[in-house]
């Protein structure tokens, strides 16, 4: 089973570049569209390779937005122009190799634009909906603003899941069966909320089921302090099978550590191969990337030119290697008594294409290879009711295996603010406003509250990545929330307020189905 | 015109010179017809709201506690400051301008100005890069980033000296002309009050007292001062050095004093309250501030306003305040012999001391008066408002 988790925080009208909307545009151009294109191609060729995808509501809202669709097309056009200018420039200075890569980019952006505008009708959500209806993919629901649920209070967690489900239904037209816990973040009790809303299954990281040492994936730079890495007790259970959660009527599916590490690991994962495109070095004039990883230990100024053909060849080799790893894993599992072992690989969708440029090619080849070897790709909805019960640990797929990445000394104050805002929200929803505007204002308060809860801000603060943007967003949504709460409490929802409020509604224009 | 001022220091919570600055600026702005609302952290024994000299003061959040995770505390304070700003804004019918002092209130200043569409003025008093002579760890890099974004987002940046204007301009890539220089000031009235009880016992009648006041950190040059002073006592036996203030360097400094056998000649007074400060200046023959880094150097003005001749390090804002041989003496603090010579000169040449005192008094009155500073600041507010309105129309 392949599970791809797709999420972009709400960035619409919250800055463009270097931080903001461009994050979404890059993910759309480099990952979502090429991946969907690839899935469709396989489907048309009769390769049966259904993929499980989770899409965060903030992502769905933005993909649905007319403004985003238009801006995305402008973004693609600008990329095309930059690639073309690069190509001419490189030709003029005799850099044939670079010019070739520029030409590839030029074609790439042109193709993406054609796919998006003509084939997909600028409407990725309808395409996703259609693919789900065909059984080509299964889409999981997730928390409304991708809040890190284990640390959130009960009520907010409930809202996050409730609205996550609601927005899913709005865009995809059906009830979701499965739920993706953001960051695989689980604490005991979350299943009760999932059950309340009728979810049938959810996913956790391998150590949540098997115990042992968590994978501890980490991509950020210097941490202020080392987190405690807990070693979980070995349970004797295995992610090769689904479990029924003890005494609860819900299924839990565990991520397979080995296949995850094979792709993700900074040391020996595929994306670090010398032939692949280097993510961190770009040509200053255009922002496009023309170098290969070369040697991971070398600084950026020691990188060599990228060769797309070599990289593609390598991606295919890696795909074959990956499937051989799968086969070996299966036979190992069979030796210890799992006749039809379930292997679940969970990845961030944006890894493929955006972070790992060749990742889409790799994935497509993996799926073909799987079909060739008579392995079966399954969707969670195909899984039979589990016969075994399990208890699972509080856990996540973040560093340290538990809540450290989102809850630590650097972020403690943010959780206090959220707790305070929650209390305040409780106060204001009970105030009757007796006007259509008043009701809208209260809805907006909830939106602002949920935007503050996005796990992204916490992640960025802990890992010191685009931290100022995270703090700025956190404080801005909080300021809007406070002003709304203040107006409702003091009965000041008047004309002056309305004028200001219209701007806020325009900026933070999501979840309008609330 | 209603101004919302964010400051993490305000009397009685004083760490550096920022609290005094905001205190004086606020009350003198009132005289310029500006309505000032200051939001600052809670302090022990202070009410949540006070009207002091016409300035509205709101104290929010928890008081600063030693040993607490500082960044957490400061960000929590920012969130509470925003909450208070939202309430007050509503009560008074809307602010016109937000004025944020230093990075510690950056997020409150930026958020409120952005969400309420108000112009943002910021005074950068010092930079992390300057304070640490570079950026050496994650915390310092982070603070530098916050300072930079505060400066870049502000509609107007103010610095207290040309030195700081240069520093902010090069560090953050802002055009020099776009940064307004308004000096810091001193109010002579605040230096008149002397302690009523327990007369100050440190300074003897026949002594020639040399005074240093400030935090005991390397950048203040106290080590150099002590070393130079060991030469001074040989020529001026009545000289005695008073080192007022606290800081991490104290132990090392005391060891140096012992090493030089100056225990009888050098007094560490510890923290000095305002009235005691006034008295020590009154009895002092000379004040020395041999800083190696100094964005402004308010201490020099304080000495000047109390008629105490000054010697300062030839750096930063200090170098701009003091004109060598006219309003004081300037030396490179790393040149110990020259620093010693300058002290001996001023302790022995009464005519020179008199001349410097007289000139200094005039200069402080004309240039560093709070009336003038508040007026310039109010002008900046008006200009920023004018530009902002034009942009909107």
TrEMBL record, chain A:
<dbReference type="InterPro" id="IPR011330">
    <property type="entry name" value="Glyco_hydro/deAcase_b/a-brl"/>
</dbReference>
<dbReference type="GO" id="GO:0005576">
    <property type="term" value="C:extracellular region"/>
</dbReference>
<dbReference type="GO" id="GO:0030979">
    <property type="term" value="P:alpha-glucan biosynthetic process"/>
</dbReference>
<feature type="binding site">
    <location>
        <position position="272"/>
    </location>
    <ligand>
        <name>substrate</name>
    </ligand>
</feature>
<comment type="similarity">
    <text>Belongs to the glycosyl hydrolase 57 family.</text>
</comment>
<feature type="active site" description="Proton donor">
    <location>
        <position position="348"/>
    </location>
</feature>
<dbReference type="InterPro" id="IPR037090">
    <property type="entry name" value="57_glycoside_trans_central"/>
</dbReference>
<dbReference type="InterPro" id="IPR040042">
    <property type="entry name" value="Branching_enz_MT3115-like"/>
</dbReference>
<feature type="binding site">
    <location>
        <position position="397"/>
    </location>
    <ligand>
        <name>substrate</name>
    </ligand>
</feature>
<dbReference type="InterPro" id="IPR027291">
    <property type="entry name" value="Glyco_hydro_38_N_sf"/>
</dbReference>
<feature type="domain" description="1,4-alpha-glucan branching enzyme C-terminal">
    <location>
        <begin position="419"/>
        <end position="512"/>
    </location>
</feature>
<feature type="domain" description="Glycoside hydrolase family 57 N-terminal">
    <location>
        <begin position="2"/>
        <end position="382"/>
    </location>
</feature>
<feature type="binding site">
    <location>
        <position position="255"/>
    </location>
    <ligand>
        <name>substrate</name>
    </ligand>
</feature>
<dbReference type="GO" id="GO:0003844">
    <property type="term" value="F:1,4-alpha-glucan branching enzyme activity"/>
</dbReference>
<feature type="active site" description="Nucleophile">
    <location>
        <position position="183"/>
    </location>
</feature>
<dbReference type="InterPro" id="IPR004300">
    <property type="entry name" value="Glyco_hydro_57_N"/>
</dbReference>
<dbReference type="Pfam" id="PF03065">
    <property type="entry name" value="Glyco_hydro_57"/>
</dbReference>
<keyword id="KW-0119">Carbohydrate metabolism</keyword>
<feature type="binding site">
    <location>
        <position position="456"/>
    </location>
    <ligand>
        <name>substrate</name>
    </ligand>
</feature>
<dbReference type="InterPro" id="IPR015293">
    <property type="entry name" value="BE_C"/>
</dbReference>
<dbReference type="InterPro" id="IPR028995">
    <property type="entry name" value="Glyco_hydro_57/38_cen_sf"/>
</dbReference>
<dbReference type="Pfam" id="PF09210">
    <property type="entry name" value="BE_C"/>
</dbReference>
TrEMBL record, chain B:
<dbReference type="InterPro" id="IPR028098">
    <property type="entry name" value="Glyco_trans_4-like_N"/>
</dbReference>
<feature type="domain" description="Glycosyltransferase subfamily 4-like N-terminal">
    <location>
        <begin position="15"/>
        <end position="189"/>
    </location>
</feature>
<keyword id="KW-0808">Transferase</keyword>
<feature type="domain" description="Glycosyl transferase family 1">
    <location>
        <begin position="205"/>
        <end position="362"/>
    </location>
</feature>
<dbReference type="Pfam" id="PF13439">
    <property type="entry name" value="Glyco_transf_4"/>
</dbReference>
<dbReference type="Pfam" id="PF00534">
    <property type="entry name" value="Glycos_transf_1"/>
</dbReference>
<protein>
    <submittedName>
        <fullName>Glycosyltransferase involved in cell wall bisynthesis</fullName>
    </submittedName>
</protein>
<dbReference type="GO" id="GO:0016757">
    <property type="term" value="F:glycosyltransferase activity"/>
</dbReference>
<dbReference type="InterPro" id="IPR050194">
    <property type="entry name" value="Glycosyltransferase_grp1"/>
</dbReference>
<dbReference type="InterPro" id="IPR001296">
    <property type="entry name" value="Glyco_trans_1"/>
</dbReference>
């Amino acid at each position: 089973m392949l599970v791809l988790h797709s999420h972009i925080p709400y960035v619409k009208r919250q800055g463009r570049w270097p931080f903001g909307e461009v994050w979404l545009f890059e993910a759309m151009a480099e990952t979502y569209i090429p991946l969907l294109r690839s899935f469709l191609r396989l489907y048309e060729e009769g390769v049966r390779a259904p993929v499980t995808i989770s899409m965060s509501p903030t992502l769905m809202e933005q993909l649905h937005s007319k403004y985003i669709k238009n801006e995305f097309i402008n973004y693609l056009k600008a990329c095309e122009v930059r690639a073309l200018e690069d190509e001419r420039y490189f030709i003029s200075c005799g850099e044939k190799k670079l010019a070739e890569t520029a030409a590839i980019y030029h074609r790439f952006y042109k193709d993406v634009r054609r796919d998006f505008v003509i084939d997909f009708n600028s409407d990725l959500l309808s395409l996703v909906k259609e693919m789900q209806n065909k059984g080509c993919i299964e889409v999981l629901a997730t928390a409304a603003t991708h809040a890190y649920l284990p640390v959130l209070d009960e009520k907010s967690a409930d809202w996050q899941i409730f609205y996550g489900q609601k927005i899913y239904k709005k865009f995809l037209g059906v009830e979701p069966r499965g739920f993706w816990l953001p960051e695989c973040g689980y604490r005991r009790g979350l299943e009760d909320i999932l059950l309340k809303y009728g979810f049938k299954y959810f996913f956790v990281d391998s150590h949540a089921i098997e115990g042992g040492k968590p994978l501890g994936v980490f991509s950020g730079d210097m941490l202020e302090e080392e987190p405690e890495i807990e070693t979980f007790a070995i349970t004797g259970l295995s992610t090769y099978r689904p479990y029924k959660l003890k005494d609860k009527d819900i299924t839990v599916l565990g991520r397979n550590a080995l296949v995850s590490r094979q792709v993700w690991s900074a040391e020996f994962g595929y994306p670090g191969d010398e032939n692949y495109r280097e993510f961190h070095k770009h040509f200053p004039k255009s922002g496009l990337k023309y170098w290969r990883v070369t040697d991971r230990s070398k600084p950026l100024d020691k990188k060599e030119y990228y060769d797309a053909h070599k990289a593609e060849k390598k991606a295919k080799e890696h795909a074959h290697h990956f499937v051989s790893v799968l086969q070996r894993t299966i036979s190992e599992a069979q030796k210890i008594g799992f006749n039809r072992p379930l292997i679940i690989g969970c990845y961030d969708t944006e890894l493929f294409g955006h972070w790992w440029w060749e990742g889409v090619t790799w994935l497509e080849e993996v799926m073909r290879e799987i079909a060739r070897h008579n392995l079966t790709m399954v969707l969670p909805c195909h899984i039979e009711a589990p016969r075994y019960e399990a208890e699972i640990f509080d856990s996540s797929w973040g560093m340290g295996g538990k809540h450290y990445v989102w809850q630590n000394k650097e972020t403690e104050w943010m959780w206090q603010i959220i707790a305070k805002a929650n209390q305040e929200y409780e106060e204001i929803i009970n105030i009757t406003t007796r006007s259509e505007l008043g009701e809208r204002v209260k809805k907006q308060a909830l939106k602002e509250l949920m935007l503050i809860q996005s796990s992204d801000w916490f992640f960025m603060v802990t890992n010191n990545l685009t931290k100022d943007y995270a703090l700025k967003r956190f404080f801005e949504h909080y300021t809007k929330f406070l002003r709304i709460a203040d107006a409702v409490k003091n009965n000041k929802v008047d004309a002056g307020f309305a004028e200001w409020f219209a701007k806020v509604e325009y900026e933070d224009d999501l979840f309008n189905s609330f | 015109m209603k101004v919302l001022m964010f400051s993490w220091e305000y009397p009685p919570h004083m760490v550096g010179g920022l609290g005094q600055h905001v205190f004086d600026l606020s009350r003198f702005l009132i005289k310029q017809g500006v309505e000032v609302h200051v939001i600052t952290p809670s302090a022990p024994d202070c009410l949540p709201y006070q009207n002091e000299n016409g300035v509205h003061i709101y104290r929010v959040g928890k008081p600063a506690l030693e040993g607490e995770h500082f960044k957490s505390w400061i960000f929590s304070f920012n969130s509470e400051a925003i909450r208070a700003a939202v309430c007050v804004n509503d009560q008074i019918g809307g602010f016109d301008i937000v004025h944020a002092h230093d990075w510690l209130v950056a997020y409150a200043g930026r958020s409120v100005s952005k969400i309420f569409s108000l112009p943002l003025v910021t005074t950068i008093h010092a930079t992390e890069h300057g304070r640490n002579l570079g950026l050496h760890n994650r915390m310092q890099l982070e603070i530098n980033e916050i300072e930079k974004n505060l400066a870049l987002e502000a509609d107007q940046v103010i610095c207290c000296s040309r030195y700081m204007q240069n520093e902010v301009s090069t560090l953050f890539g802002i055009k020099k002309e776009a940064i307004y220089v308004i000096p810091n000031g001193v109010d002579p009235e605040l230096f008149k009050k002397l302690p009523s009880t327990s007369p100050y016992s440190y300074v003897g009648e026949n002594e020639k007292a040399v005074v240093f006041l400030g935090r005991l950190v390397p950048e203040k040059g106290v080590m150099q001062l002590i070393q130079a002073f060991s030469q001074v006592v040989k020529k001026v036996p009545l000289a005695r050095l008073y080192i007022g203030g606290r800081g991490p360097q104290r132990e090392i400094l005391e060891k140096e004093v012992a090493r030089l056998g100056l225990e009888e000649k050098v007094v560490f007074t510890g923290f000095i309250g305002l009235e005691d400060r006034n008295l020590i200046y009154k009895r002092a023959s000379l004040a020395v501030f041999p800083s190696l880094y100094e964005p402004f150097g308010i201490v020099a003005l304080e000495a000047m306003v109390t008629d105490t001749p000054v010697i300062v390090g030839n750096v930063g804002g200090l170098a701009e305040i003091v004109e060598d041989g006219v309003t004081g003496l300037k030396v490179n603090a790393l040149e110990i012999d020259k620093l010693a010579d300058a002290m001996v000169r001023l302790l022995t040449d009464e005519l020179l001391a008199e001349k410097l005192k007289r000139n200094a008094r005039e200069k402080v009155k004309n240039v560093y008066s709070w009336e003038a500073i508040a007026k310039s600041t109010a002008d900046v507010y008006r200009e920023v408002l004018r530009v902002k309105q034009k942009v909107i129309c």
